[in-house]
Amino acid sequence: MSYRFVSFLVLCSSILLIAACKHQSTSDQLAKTPYGLAYETLKKGNGPAPQIGDLVTIYSIYKTANDSVFASGYEPDVIAQQFKMGKATQYGDLLDMFSVMHEGDSTEFYLQSDSVYQGVRPPYIHAGDIVKIIIKMEEVAVDTGQAGGIRPSQNDQLQIDTRLIQNYLAKNNLTGFEKVEDGVFYHIDKKGKGENLKAGQNVKMHYILENLQGEKIDATYDRGEPITVTLGIGQLILGWEEGLRYFNVGSSGELIIPSPLAYGEQGQAQSNIEPNEILVFKIEIIGIYDEVKQLATDSKIIRDYLDRGSMKAKQTKEGVYYKITKKGKGPKPVSGQTMIIDYTGRLLDGTVFDSSVDRDQPFSFVLGAGQVIQGWEIGLQYFNKGAKGLIFIPSTLAYRDHQVGNIPPNSVLIFDVQVLDIQ
Length: 423
Description:
It is a single chain. This protein is an alpha+beta fold. The chain is 18% helix and 30% strand. The longest helix is centred in the middle third of the chain and has 20 residues, at 152-171.
C-alpha cells in the first residue's frame, strides 16, 4: 500500500471545493461527534480506536445529495491519505471525525458548509447545504517517529534513494537542487509570479516524466494538452504534491522523487515504472483553473445564446439550464434508477459531437453513479419518462478545460434529450 501524509487542514480545505448536498435525514436521527457533526456508521470495523499521536490511514469519497461521486479515494490507483491523530479543535475538524471511528470503520459524515466555509464560496455550495463525506479508516498505527509519513519498512529505501539522487546530481554536474524535509529534491529553472501553489487550487501544468537513466515514461507535451489537477485531495503521488508547493504560476523546473514518495516497492507496471524507481519530473506551471470565474463566463454565454434565440430556460442552483419542450408522465428519476435516453450533443455553433439518435442506439446509465458528466446528472433529474427538452451545460460541469474529441476546452454543451424509460 502507498501512503500519503498530509495535515488535516489540507483535506479540510479540499472538502470545501467539492459539490454540496442536502442530507435528507434530520440531525436528531443521527449520532454526533464531540463537536456536533452528524454521522452514520456504514460498516463497523473491529480494530482499535486512534489515540493521540497515532498515524491514521484513510480512504475517502465525496458525494452529492443524489449520491453522485465527485471525488473518490476508493479507486485502485488512488494513494491513501495518512494523518497524525491529535485533539480536535472545532466543528469540521477531521480529527473530530476520527475520534468516533475505529480501524476498519466506514463512516458517512454530514458537514454544514455554512460552518466550515468562509468568504466567497463556489457557486455550487449554497447556504444551508451539507457536504457528504464517507471515510474508510484503513489502518491505525503507532507513530515510530519517521519523518514524512514513511513507514519503517520504507525508510531504508528512502535513505538508499537519497544517496542515489545525490550521486546522480554530482555525476551530471547538476546544481541548485534543494532537498525538502520529506526527501524530494527540487530546482526552479524559471521563476513565476504570485504566491506558491496551495491545496484546493486547480493547477494546469505540462510535465515530462523520466527515470534517472533519462528514459521518458510519460509527457503531456506528446498528447498536446496540459493536465489539470486539484491539489490537496490525493490526485497526485506524494512527492509530486509536496514538490509543487515550491512552484507558482509561470514557473518551471524539476522534481526528483524518491520511490517511497512515488510508487514504492510495487511500482506501476502499466506505466512502465519499476519497483523502487526514482522519478524525475520536468514541469511547467501554465496557470490556475478558476472554476468560479469560468462558471460565471459560461453562464453569461448561455444566457446570451438563449436571448438571441428568444428562448426561456430554467436554471438550477449548480448552473445548468434546462427547457422542457414536451412533458412526460410519472415521477422524476431518483438516484439509483436507470435512465434510458436518446440524445444529440452539440456545441453552441451547431457542431454535433455525439448522437445516440444517429447511431440508432439509445443510451442507458444509472443516475447518481458518476457514469456521466455532472451536467447530465443535474439536468436530467428534471425529466420524467417521455419528456423531451434541452439541457445547457457550462463547461465546469462538463469537460472543463480539457479537449475531448472535437469538443474544445471550456466549451458550453447543448443536449437535445428524450427520456425513453426510467427503471
